[in-house]
Specification:
The structure holds two protein chains of two kinds. Chain A is an alpha+beta fold. Chain A has three helices and 13 strands, in the order H-H-E-E-E-E-E-H-E-E-E-E-E-E-E-E. Chain A has helices at residues 21-25, 31-52, 107-111, and strands at residues 61-67, 70-76, 79-81, 85-94, 101-105, 113-119, 124-128, 131-135, 144-153, 159-162, 165-169, 172-177, 180-184. The radius of gyration of chain A is 30 Å and the shape is rod-shaped. The chains are: A alpha+beta, B alpha+beta.
Chain lengths: 185, 147
């Protein structure tokens, strides 16, 4: 830097090393920098809004199907993230007696998640090619049976899985809920 | 494998986040910023190792981030054209005692921020400053007028 005194005024030294005024003061060729920064902030904001709108879970959703005097309601999230703990409930409202109700959960329920507990404990449990079949015991006409299930999403099971639930009475298929579980990292 | 992948994603997400937050936030570490930093670290850790409490998991996470830091540092050193993208560039914000408002606005710097930084470097008045440069680290360098 050079300098010299002129009267009692001090002189501004030469431009500091490595500083190019056109680029570092006048920002020539750097206009796009602001655009990119704003674009990235916008992208980040969109990601947060998507989170608020439940895109990444885990707000539960209700799905109800009914036929032949029986209704089946599933209360559970469809979008999940690795490691989340949550509760799902399955409600069966029977207007006629079900002698041998069996709930069948698609493979995705057990593959993507750890089942911590089922309350009340089903009368019977079996597995058929990864599908879990739970025998609930008779449900009397006019009564409602609710099954509570606690899950924890396996952190490594990122992807989408079948989250279908089917209700049988013996070998007769009564109702089916078609769902997809999406697990985000 | 999962932890390494998570480490890569977290590293680049934080890198981009730090770049888009701007230098003003980087340069200051007031009590609230410190708390935010701790919360940030905690939130990131949950996503990085999740329920893995193992030493191996921890070493994989730390190792991934360390290696990526070295890689970025090497790229920065080896390819000068990448430096503006990876590190940013300095911006002149004071010339001959006068703040350059357009550049300060770009970095969300107020006159008060400038005066505070000057005082911290023993400069009482911006009139004494020949050049003020906002560095890539977020700190402000002042070069005094001579004479």
């Amino acid at each position: 830097m050079s300098c010299c005194r002129v009267g009692n005024q001090r002189r501004v030294g030469a431009t500091p090393d490595q500083i190019v005024l056109s680029r570092h003061r006048d920002l020539e060729g750097r206009r796009k920098g602001v655009f990119w920064r704003r674009a990235m902030v916008g992208l980040l904001a969109a990601f947060l809004v998507a989170g608020l709108l439940n895109v990444f879970g885990q707000r539960p959703e209700d799905t109800t199907v009914q036929a032949a005097g029986v209704s089946l309601q599933l209360h559970a999230p469809t979008s999940l993230r690795g490691g989340l703990l949550y509760e799902a409930s399955i409600m069966i409202h029977a207007q006629r007696t079900l002698h041998d109700p069996v709930l069948v959960f698609a493979k995705g329920w057990a593959v993507a998640q750890t089942i911590n507990t089922l309350e009340p404990t089903p009368a019977t449990q079996s597995s058929d090619e990864g599908q879990l079949s739970l025998g609930l015991g008779p449900i009397q006409a006019g009564s409602t049976y609710t099954l509570f299930a606690e899950f924890q999403v396996n952190p490594t099971s990122v992807g989408s899985y079948s989250g279908d639930v089917t209700l049988y009475d013996g070998n007769t298929k009564l109702l089916h809920i078609d769902r997809t579980l999406v697990v985000y990292p | 494998m999962d932890i390494v992948l998570r480490g890569i994603v977290v590293f680049f997400a934080l890198y981009v986040l730090m770049r888009i937050m701007g230098r003003r936030e980087l340069s200051k570490l007031e009590p609230f910023d410190l708390i935010l930093l701790i919360i940030l670290g905690d939130a990131v850790q949950q996503g990085l190792t999740q329920d893995d409490y193992s030493l191996t998991g921890g070493m994989l996470a730390v190792g991934t981030i360390a290696v990526l830091q070295v890689v970025v540092s090497f790229l920065n050193f080896r390819f000068p054209r990448l430096r503006p993208v990876l590190n940013g560039e300095p911006i002149v914000i004071v010339q001959d005692g006068k703040p350059i408002e357009r550049n300060m606005r770009r970095e969300r710097l107020t006159y008060e921020d400038l005066a505070e930084s000057a005082r911290m470097q023993g400069i009482g008045s911006l009139d004494d400053v020949a050049w003020g440069v906002l560095e890539t680290s977020g700190s402000i360098s002042f070069i005094k007028k001579s004479g």
